[in-house]
Amino acid sequence: MSKTLDQIKTIFELFSEAVLILDGDFKVIWKNRTASSRLPVSLNSVKAPKNLTGGKIDKVTIPTVHGEESACMAPLRDLFILFIPDPFPKAKTDRTPAPNNPQKDLKNIPSAYIYTSKAMIETINLSTRAASVDTNILITGETGIGKTFLAKLIHTNSPRKDGPFVSINCGAIPPTLLESELFGYEKGAFTGADRTGRVGLLETGVLGTVFLDEIAELSINLQVKLLNAIEEKKITRIGGRKPVELDIRIIAATNKDLTKMVSEGNLREDLFYRLNVISLVIPPLRSRPEDILPLANHFLEKYNLKYNVHKTFNPDVIQAFIQYGWPGNIRELQNAIERMMVMSEKEKITVQDLPPHILAPRAVLTPPPPSNKESNLQNERETLERELILKSLRENKSIRGAARKLGISHATLLRKIDKLNLNGAILASSKGRGGKRE
Ligand SMILES: Nc1ncnc2c1ncn2[C@@H]1O[C@H](COP(=O)(O)OP(=O)(O)O)[C@@H](O)[C@H]1O
Ligand SMILES: [Mg+2]
């Protein structure tokens, strides 16, 4: 039974509805991810529904933060399964507004922007505040984690939303061309220049947002020019005399540790402070496994639509996804899913369809990149706890075994798993042991 129950749980994790498993006294003993992230935490037990006929599916109502919600209760041996089809009527997508201040959520988030983890909710809350004030922003995060996506979201939620969004990848333009691309030039400014001259990319962003990706690639010479442009709010085209007004907001992005670059003399400190007025950090995917399943489902849906197919994941694929480290982050996950969906001829995608490197277990969870956020003891402790628990879950055959290894009680570990939103890790750790949440 426990093996079957574990398989059932794995399937319930794929549901966008909230699903809870209750014991005979209607105490909640397990919730799927949707239920964990969308229902009030206080829902630890359900009042015995009136007129429960037993033995078949009953319609019941349960209290949530939005008032009474209707749900279905189905018996399963000595347990009950509770389905709440629309647990969060106002937010139908896979994202979760911050529980205490939903009004602070970015208004213009497309349903394709997926996040459920606490760390991302914090980043989005901060982005919301940042969007409305006209200051420069620095977004830090590994490649493929969504820096460009977030920059666009901030723009579309800012007062400059009707202006242009100009995206410039400083690492992709040859260094010799970067200056003229950024600042533009007057006619005849240099040999090979267009006869008519050219407007620079910075200038094309006037009244809008300029996204400077891979900002660490700017030469010292261009750093000085950019700093002047920011301070003066004016630029002069190459070969030109008259400065041009430059009313832009800059969102810079990097996967490098800019503080280190400043201390090593590769980045001007004054430019760093000009860009880093508000610092947003997007944590790597491996440090927030709870976001993997909603993202995977989202991409599955997207490519089912694109290729007009109806593929689904076998639960072991999801387990492998949660265990893998995703160095290329969301971009890598998206590409892997598209590739599997194109290559596999079957409706059901199984681990056999996975590229072999995704199946290779990772030894240690890599810590997230240094954050510019003030470190606070509580955050540090949670990060450390999360890593130790994930490691122990990977190395031990059962949650009970992991708890023993960690020197804490089984109940404490279960509580911590819920608190740190690590239910995804349980899925992963139950792989191959016919796992029980015991
Ligand atoms: N939160 C998210 N939800 C859904 N897709 C995302 C999310 N963040 C990023 N992506 C997708 O992942 C890919 C990489 O994102 P991108 O913004 O280009 O990353 P970066 O700029 O950090 O390299 C893009 O296809 C983007 O649409
Ligand atoms: Mg990018």
Question: How does this structure look, described?
Answer:
There is one protein chain. With 438 residues, the protein is of the alpha/beta class. The protein has 3 domains: 1-90, Beta-Lactamase, CATH 3.30.450; 108-281, P-loop containing nucleotide triphosphate hydrolases (Rossmann fold, 3-Layer(aba) Sandwich), CATH 3.40.50; 285-359, Orthogonal Bundle (Helicase, Ruva Protein, domain 3). The chain is built from 17 helices and 16 strands. The chain has helices at 2-12, 33-38, 118-132, 147-156, 175-183, 201-204, 220-232, 258-263, 269-275, 292-307, 315-323, 329-343, 356-359, 377-395, 399-406, 410-419, 423-429; strands at 18-22, 28-31, 58-64, 67-76, 79-84, 137-140, 165-169, 184-185, 198-199, 209-213, 234-235, 244-245, 249-254, 278-281, 312-313, 348-349. The strands form 5 sheets. The protein has a 5-stranded antiparallel beta sheet with strand order 2-1-5-4-3. Strand 1 and strand 2 form a beta hairpin. Helix 14 runs parallel beside helix 17 (423-429) and helix 15 (399-406) packs across helix 16. The longest helix has 19 residues, at 377-395. The protein is elongated, with a radius of gyration of 25 Å. The two termini are 13 Å apart. Mean pLDDT is 82; it is low at 88-104, 362-369 and 431-438. Bound molecules: adenosine-5'-diphosphate and magnesium ion. The site of adenosine-5'-diphosphate has 16 residues, from helix 4 and helix 12.
